[in-house]
Amino acid sequence: MKKKFLILPVAVMWGCTDYAGQWEDSYGVAFAQGSSTPALICVEGTTTALSDDQGNCTTDFICANNAWIPQNTVCKGSQQQRICDEGIGTSVVNGSCITNFLCINNAWVVYGDPICTPTPVSSSSITIPKSSSSVKRSSSSVVRSSSSKARSSSSSVKTSTAFPTWYGGDGFEQVDTRLDDGSETSGYWFVYGDAEDGGASKISWPVPLGNEYSPDAKEPVLLHCGGLCGTAVLDKGTLTYNPFVGVGFNVAGSDGHYGVAADASAWGGLCITYRSAVAPALELGLDDATERSIGYANPAASLPKSTAGTMKNLAWTDFKQPSWYRGDTKIGGEAAAKQLVSVKFKIQASTGKYDFNICAIGPYNGGCPSTCF
Question: What is the pTM for the complete model shown?
Answer without folding.
Answer: 0.60
